Amino acid sequence: MQVKMAKNYGFCFGVKRAIEIAQRNRDSLTLGSLIHNPKEIERLERDFDVKVQEDVSAIEPHKSVIIRTHGIPKGDLAILKEKGARIIDATCPYVIKPQQIVEKMSAKGYQIVIFGDANHPEVKGVISYSSTPPLSINSLEELQVKKLSKKVALVSQTTKQTPKLLEIATFLIARCAEVRIFNTICNATFDNQEAVKELSQEVDVMIIVGGKTSSNTKQLFHIAKGFCADSYLVEDAQDLDPQWFKNKKLCGISAGASTPDWIIESVRERITTF
Amino acid sequence: MQVKMAKNYGFCFGVKRAIEIAQRNRDSLTLGSLIHNPKEIERLERDFDVKVQEDVSAIEPHKSVIIRTHGIPKGDLAILKEKGARIIDATCPYVIKPQQIVEKMSAKGYQIVIFGDANHPEVKGVISYSSTPPLSINSLEELQVKKLSKKVALVSQTTKQTPKLLEIATFLIARCAEVRIFNTICNATFDNQEAVKELSQEVDVMIIVGGKTSSNTKQLFHIAKGFCADSYLVEDAQDLDPQWFKNKKLCGISAGASTPDWIIESVRERITTF
């Protein structure tokens, strides 16, 4: 099987940075998974003694705690400070931005609209920075039933798709006197998405490598599926099913922003054997 | 010929207000036409001695000067003040808004984008309130070749169509870190447009009554034409051509925001005789 890699794929700047931070801080905890990739989390625990703790109240005083790429809610940060934790901030700078915007705009009296998945850790963190109850919506349909103020500020989860953000912005502009739109979608996400769009149109089968809970990985898969019916999402080489490649000539490969190169490489190698 | 009036048409709040102001201020000048309707301007001159002066430098000291609905450039206002003119402000409050926004946003360092016709008096006025050179664009195509800043504030000429504003906003949001969008399109315009859209789909022939230099009248005509090929723009009953109504059953009528009721009524009456 012949393979072709997407023009852009895999680790983004924020993830690379967080992993380097974790590797420099052996024997520390991360509050929640550092990144959304179980295999890489296993490697960090095995090789660097960096363990995941999901529950902030269970963290012992004065521990070294790494803040994950997605950030954490303001309240959790306060608890860590109370516990005298040594806080190592690996929050992606692109995630800190919407947190700061929401804090500032809510203080200025703007109604906050957050386009994102309210259950995603990044969005939970961003929501916590609003001093007034924000509207957190994951689709235009969800927004359509909400009561809007005259002055609205809109931010987006960093991994959302730009066309969807534009749809939401458009809805608001037609209804509000002032809409302040902060395009907080990350370029790395956009570049990976554009590359998948391109590649999935020229291949017979498309493989997206990444964590099944990773928002940006799921989106890459969704985009690929739109252009190439035979698209599959795998976490590693073991998930590959030889049946997928029967009678196919060219396989495209891309990977989510939290997928390490060593996993992508093993998937690529395995596919070439089919 | 049977006629049907649009649900909303004719004089808007700002125009009604300006005419009342003019009628209360006999023997005054307006700097440029008070509203974009030559017949009504004639009536004000004939019945109330309100004359039009196009050239600010030609105005004698200490005259009573009415500021037109569209507003005037900041520089012209300064000249009037120097001349000791008694200034009577009939600028539409919906036009004052984009002037104020542009003044404030340019002072705060936002690049100003004005969606409007740079030759229209309203837009000339709004442009003059920017402390930095604004981008004044009349279409998305014009914007596409401009250099954009990271932080942009967008306002619109009050008589523009919302879908076009949304197109321009969408373009900016995808390219700028922050876009502050002020929907300064006037509801009256929108309501008249929606009513024309509806009515022009159910009639055989559509008549739009208004000044041929009136931006909002021209837009009503443009919308009507999109749904009803036999649409015509007339300034008064004399412009009506009986040929237009041959073999037609139902004629729709609408009128621009600066068209007085007495003109609309005479057009309606005439059409019923065909």
Brief summary of the model shown:
Chains A, B: Belongs to the IspH family. The structure is a homodimer of 274-residue chains. By secondary structure, the first copy, chain A, is an alpha/beta fold.
Would you write up a description of this structure?
The structure is a homodimer of 274-residue chains. In chain A, strand 8 (151-156), helix 7 (162-173) and strand 9 (178-182) form a beta-alpha-beta unit. The longest helix of chain A is centred in the middle third of the chain and has 15 residues, at 93-107. The radius of gyration of chain A is 20 Å and the shape is flat. With 274 residues, chain A is an alpha/beta fold. The first copy, chain A, has a 4-stranded parallel beta sheet, sandwiched between helices. Chain A is built from 10 helices and 12 strands. The first copy, chain A, starts with a strand and ends with a helix. Strand 9 of chain A pairs antiparallel with strand 9 (178-182) of chain B.
Question: Main attributes?
Answer:
oxidoreductase (chains A, B); four-stranded parallel β-sheet; flat; 12 strands; homodimer; alpha/beta; 274 residues; iron-sulfur (chains A, B)
